[in-house]
């Protein structure tokens, strides 16, 4: 029997109970009949062909480049002007600048001085260009002396991520060609990328953007690349420009960042280096990427109208991964209001002139209700910003700024929060995806529980988790009629969770559905109808045993259990991880495509063990 479509009405809930999850055990139940709710087959033909406005990637795009050879085939080759690694130099001038910079807090200033002493005590590295791995190897192998009574390894372990990044920024030097005339750039080779689905997603974005271009009378898509999510917004520019250029687009970097937004707002473009340091934690970028920094400063001096003009002329705009809070600050003012640049993006999407894409943080930041701003009945959709499943279950969700990585070592975590505290922006992100919360790196990092916790805490009905090297395509053409078309693309799955009315803070409850490449869905007035690919057939139950790995919300363990349940003759599995019982149940039969990909409607319940 072929499944033409399944009508899905799903819901979920949150649990906030102290304690951590531990050992897993499986309780198996015998098979029982299940009932499929089928929508009329002809329903899928009533809607127009999708013209997608958003392409939301879950991160993890393993792409062949001169700085990522592990993703390349043996045939990959790059020119002599290809950058293969960052360069570092222990030079008296650089070390003097580092020792005098205010990078560490007053309480930890001694660490900075110890590091300066250590770097001056590495004679074999003085005056030599080092790769990052070479620098770190010599640093960590340093043994304590009479001059410095602490070892390099001890100093390494003492640093927070923020402090380490600052140290590396100050020791970094530009990577130049042999004659010193050119800055080396990271080069991409999509054709020799071993992970085919990753390379294809770049091409698909350009193909969709090209449709926007053709509607304007031109054949080649103009794609803007935004690296606002990065701590160092210059580092990935060359990579993305080359990737989308190889995919067939005319590309340009749009240097729109939180630092640029602040400089334009305060009319102080000369202070860009300070804004980069204070907001991004990025230092000396004007020296490392002089050409890119000049472009950024020139755009700053032209003002917001110049940024808006670039957006208005583009067919596609793509946001990179990193920290979604940084991209939020790049496009919203300090009071949360939309910037002129964000309003230009929203208007271009509404007019079907612009495709907006993102990966990882560039996807998560799209959550929010801005696109439905004229609909007074629309509730606010929050933006997730930090946390993992187990900390979410233990400590709940907080509407607060995310603690920065390493704040525990500096003893500066805000409000005594854990570094892994689940945090969110209650008013949402950029607001281009109005249907629900967006999460990324989803199955690979076991984020099912953190999504449910946030749904329960904010009473958000729908949430979407996108796996790595996978995309959720979104057509907002009919949003005025309350209809949005969705499609999955790429290597893995898009996970949909809907908060069930029966869910309580003591018993999380959600119906879930996973789409994979080719599966489509329609959101209509709050209800999701799913249309799996035509080649999917009902999975015949086998005697395959249920398999589970603990902890369940770690790595891809939950996805593995879900798939194992589909292929077993059991209707449910209960995993005990005190103080919780986690129960996954079949709601409908599972369906499988010819290449083994599964579509599974299931129910997730998390309760406190009695």
From TrEMBL:
Domain of life per record: Bacteria
Signal peptide (from-to): 1-24
Stored Gene3D superfamilies: 3.40.50.880
UniProt entry keywords in alphabetical sequence: Signal
Name the UniProt record assigns to this protein: Cyanophycinase
Record organism: Alishewanella longhuensis
